[in-house]
Amino acid sequence: MVATTARISPSLEDYLEGVLIVKEKKGIVRVKDLAKLLNVRASSVVEALQKLKERKLIVQQHYGYVELTPEGTNVAKTLYERHNTLTRFFHEVLGIDEKTSEEDACKIEHYLSRETFERIVKFIKFIETCPLDPPEWLSSFHYFVKHRKRPPKSRAKHPR
Amino acid sequence: MVATTARISPSLEDYLEGVLIVKEKKGIVRVKDLAKLLNVRASSVVEALQKLKERKLIVQQHYGYVELTPEGTNVAKTLYERHNTLTRFFHEVLGIDEKTSEEDACKIEHYLSRETFERIVKFIKFIETCPLDPPEWLSSFHYFVKHRKRPPKSRAKHPR
DNA sequence: CAAATATATTAGGCAAGCCTAACTTCTGTC
DNA sequence: GACAGAAGTTAGGCTTGCCTAATATATTTG
């Protein structure tokens, strides 16, 4: 009943996340699809899937499709959520272009502590619950990035 | 005259940064010090230093101390600055404890794009140039983290 | 200054994660 | 249903980065 304790490697995280992504997009998951998504050869995918099977995160019949187990689904969804949250943070908060945001999220999602990740979630929530959307300070930051100086003294958009 | 093109691996980045850190702290750099700092065996350090020598980032006499070349110094300082900036961001902006901030910075410093890194630098600069220090929104965020709700409607600390 | 100890190096091994090439199985079409 | 092409698998090799054990050099100390 106890879940596998050891965390899977960054590489395996990518494969597992990939399974979820392909599944959502195409309904079925083939070795070929994962190879394309992750830019590796099919044999590398097979090797990785073998390890994910050992950890009971996926099942796959010989020469068949790949399926996530319930636990694999949980893990994959958690990873995917991290990925998306980080992408949003880079793009929406820092104002980084979507492609770079995506790439950076992809790389660091494996390395950030749970604590820091959750704080970033809160940061986004904080911004979303601001009375003004986006809050004035964030608009100011984007102005600051664009014009290399702080915006002129604000005339609030919602004056009292 | 052209600098070595290929980027060094995350692992080598750690070793190179370690050389700078030990140098600043102790004046001289020994294999032993790096082994301790990076939690590896001396033989692993020797192996890594060999690669850094090939890339002309350090010099070392046989059985002697390690020294950074001018280029090695540049690279190491850049890495160290990334490290420190990320640590500050996690700690001062997100409010993560120092130890975790440090650890997370250590891990992701190798993976973040230059673009995103520089945007984080700007984000910190933006905060530092706010008329109020820390700016009210940031205090509100820290309140939000601590009390799990937004602070009561602000009575500005610097009313006009 | 010689022995003991500390430090650095070398040699050889291992795991992860990728690859190519050869082979097996599946699938769609005639 | 046979067979050609597509997809999956297996075998074996390579690199990185770590390790232990054995060896070489430096340094300290009696």
Q: What does this protein structure show overall?
A:
The structure is a homodimer of 160-residue chains. Chain A has 2 domains: 10-69, Winged helix-like DNA-binding domain superfamily/Winged helix DNA-binding domain (Arc Repressor Mutant, subunit A, Orthogonal Bundle), CATH 1.10.10; 76-147, Diphtheria Toxin Repressor, domain 2. The longest helix of chain A has 24 residues, at 70-93. Chain A is elongated. Helices cover 62% and strands 4% of the residues of chain A. Chain A has helices at residues 10-26, 31-38, 42-54, 70-93, 98-108, 114-128, 136-147; strands at 58-60, 66-68. The first copy, chain A, has 160 residues and is mainly alpha-helical. A two-stranded antiparallel sheet of chain A has the order 1-2. The interface between A and B is medium-sized, with 29 and 29 residues. Chain A binds a DNA duplex (30 and 30 nucleotides) through residues 9, 11, 30-32, 40-48, 51, 62-64.
Q: How big is the Rg of chain A?
A: 20 Å
Largest interface: chains, residues each = A-B, 29 and 29 residues
Helix content of chain A: 55-70%
Instruction: Please give the largest β-sheet of chain A.
Output: 2 strands, antiparallel
What is the multimeric organization of the chains shown? homodimer
Parts with pLDDT < 50 across at least 5 consecutive residues of chain A = none
Continuous helix count of chain A: 7
Order of helices and strands of chain A: HHHEEHHHH
Query: How many β strands of chain A by DSSP?
Result: 2
Q: How many domains of chain A, as an integer?
A: 2
Helix/strand class of chain A: mainly alpha
Strand order within the widest beta sheet of chain A: 1-2
Average per-residue pLDDT of chain A, rounded, comes to 91
Can you tell me the overall shape of chain A? elongated
State which percent range the strand residues of chain A make up: under 5%
Provide the CATH topology of the largest domain in chain A.
Answer: Diphtheria Toxin Repressor, domain 2
Q: What would CATH call the class of the largest domain in chain A? A: Mainly Alpha
